[in-house]
Design brief:
By secondary structure, the chain is an alpha+beta fold. It contains 3 helices and 5 strands.
Length: 78
């Protein structure tokens, strides 16, 4: 299951800097994870200083949907 970013995100970019596949994008209000790219390695979860990233099984369903909807229109980081 892909990682999911919730509204605790402060857009610091720490997660994007460690993502080996570029799945994390800069959304309008927060960073988002593209579920079609994420390989579920967990590196972003460990790196997030805000604790804003969870696995999709642990995250609230609204954030799973939010990330999936916003990722296609978000800006690629890096």
């Amino acid at each position: 299951m892909p990682s999911v970013i919730n509204d605790s995100c402060v857009k610091c970019g720490a997660c994007a800097s460690v993502c080996p596949v570029g799945a994390i994008k800069d959304g309008e209000t927060q960073m988002v994870v593209d579920p079609n790219v994420c390989i579920d390695c967990g590196m972003c979860i460990a790196e997030c200083p805000q604790g804003a990233i969870k696995t999709a099984d642990e995250a609230d369903e609204k954030w799973v949907k939010f990330n999936a909807e916003k990722a296609p229109t978000a800006t690629q980081v890096g």
